[in-house]
What we know:
This protein is α/β, with parallel strands linked by helices. It has helices at 2-14, 25-29, 44-59, 76-81, 108-118; strands at 18-19, 33-39, 65-71, 89-94, 97-103.
Amino acid sequence: MKILFTLLISIVTLFGFEKLDSSNFDEKIKNKNVIVDFYAVWCPPCKILNQNLKDFDELKTQQDVTIFKVDVDEQMALARKYKITKLPSVVFIKNGKVKDLQFGVLSADELETLSQKHFK
């Protein structure tokens, strides 16, 4: 029972940000500064990145940056469209245009530096 509870908590934690799918992706990122986290529930580094994204979201200096998540197992077409080949992957999008694609776990400080670079 304890293992099931722990697993449930870790899955719920992954969904702290709004999830996107192919039906709402383009509309949600339109005319915004967006960081999209492509992840999978079974991916341990994705859980670390999720916590770093939460830390970044609380401390970010640019308040006009929105964070979204895309589950690659549920949204394979979006993963292919954005050339996601490794997890976790973070895509920086400004006004609907990809500015950068980063693979791996980024710290909150790295996320801040990259967002300042791409969302001037």
